[in-house]
Amino acid sequence: VKGVTETEYMVKNLEPSTTYCFTVTSANEDKESDKSSQVCATTWEKIPEWLPAPTNFKATYASEFDIKLTWDAVEGATTYRVYYPDGNIFSTGAGETTWLVTVEDKEAEYCFEVTAVYTSKDGKEVESEKSKLCTSIADLENPTEPEPEDPDLDPRIKRYKMKIKQSEELL
User: Fold this and answer.
1) Euclidean distance between CA atoms 131 and 113, whole angstroms
2) From the DSSP assignment, how many helices (H) and strands (E) are in the chain?
3) What is the DSSP letter of 164?
4) Which residues contact 145 (CB under 8 A, 6 or more apart)?
5) Nearest residue to 57 via CA among 40, 73, 43
């Protein structure tokens, strides 16, 4: 850079996570000095300003006392945090979008929250808003079936009608 008279200079518009090397010379009207020793530096990585909350947060039955939590991946997230009702917080592995939860009471309702987290190489974090869901093992084991629009298509009514018909035939 020509024409700089100060002993420091701000280089702008550099790319994130890129190494740049610099040398310096001094000059007057008559001549220019030899180059200084080369100095190199790497710019910091670009840190997102915010992350969206995970979407499609769901719970499914895994076993008698286990609930499987799943959610869609968030672009830019390096990990996720699962918040338990008792205040415990657990982090998933990089890129994992499932978490298995063991509960004590399968009839009790439990509420969970999940966030997306970006952690930079130097430890700076950005955490999304929370996605929340509440469920119980009992709800997941026995999901309520919607009533059919046509009662004659309901298998329970068909079985009941067959039993009545069989009873009538016996009389």
Assistant:
1) 5
2) 2, 10
3) H
4) none
5) 73
CB 79 within 8 A of CB 71: no
Digit-coded pLDDT (tens) for 131-162: 999 998 888 875 554 555 555 555 555 555 55
- Which helix (H) or strand (E) element contains residue 159? helix 155-170
- Count CA within 13 A, CB hemisphere, residue 107: 0
Q: What is the pLDDT of residue 47?
A: 63
Q: What are phi and psi of 151, to 5 degrees?
A: -60, -25
**Per-residue tokens: 137:** 């093992």
The one-character DSSP state at 158 is H
What is the longest distance spanned by two Cα atoms in the chain? 125
Tell me which amino acid residue 151 is: P
Question: Whole-angstrom Cα distance, residue 87 to residue 109?
Answer: 15
